[in-house]
Each structure stands twice: as C-alpha cells, then as structure tokens.
Amino acid sequence: QVRLVESGGGFVQPGGSLRLSCASSESLFDIDAMGWYRQAPGKERELVGVITADGGTHVDDSVKDRFTISRDTAKNTSYLQMNGLKYEDTAVYYCNALFWGQGTQVTVSS
60, 61, 76, 104 - which has most CB atoms within 10 Å? Predict the structure, then answer.
C-alpha cells in the first residue's frame, strides 16, 4: 500500500507563493499518476492536477496559469508550486496515488 505524506502548507499573503510536497513510500514510476486535490470549507474536494508516471502533467484550467506540478523521482516526491495565491485558493490540499484499471469500452452507436 502506497503511503503519502503532504507538506509545505502554511499561511501566505495574497499574491504569494507556496510549494507543496507529496512524498511517496513507493517509486513514482510504479504509480500511474499522482493527483493533487483541494477541498475548501463547505465545498467538494476538487482535482487540481496530475502528473503521470512518464512525467506528463495536467493542471485544471482554473489554476493552470498560476500552479505547476513537478516531481523528483530520486526522492519519490511530487510538488505543487502555487504562485499568485488568491483568497479562493484557501483549502486543504491533498495528494493521491492513482492507478488505472484495465478500462472498459463504451461505444455509443445506433
């Protein structure tokens, strides 16, 4: 079972930056993707972005001009760099190890 430890959160003024870390007990190459999520008070948890095992990244459109995801495979750690922070970025941030299933085909056809 993969164990993850997030760190790097804290207080920051609007416009400031923070870098969050997610340390994994397993090699990042053995995890299909690392996801970053956040949950603001009174709101549902939402996906911020992911970084895949081959290093590809996707960040939600709402923050992609301010947030970036990276990793250090030697340290088994993923990072979420947050710049230009806004009041609405206030949330608990989580990381998650994602594993793909085999997939199931859906075909819509008449």
Answer: 76
CA distance 1 to 16: 35
Torsion angle of alpha carbons 23, 24, 30, 31, nearest 10°? Answer: -80
Give CA–CA dist 27/77, Å, rounded.
Answer: 9
Distance CA 78, CA 44 (A): 23
Q: Distance of CA 107 to CAs 100, 101, 104, 110, Å?
A: 20, 18, 10, 10
pLDDT attached to residue 1: 87
DSSP assigned state of 8 = -
Contact 65, 11 (CB under 8 A): no
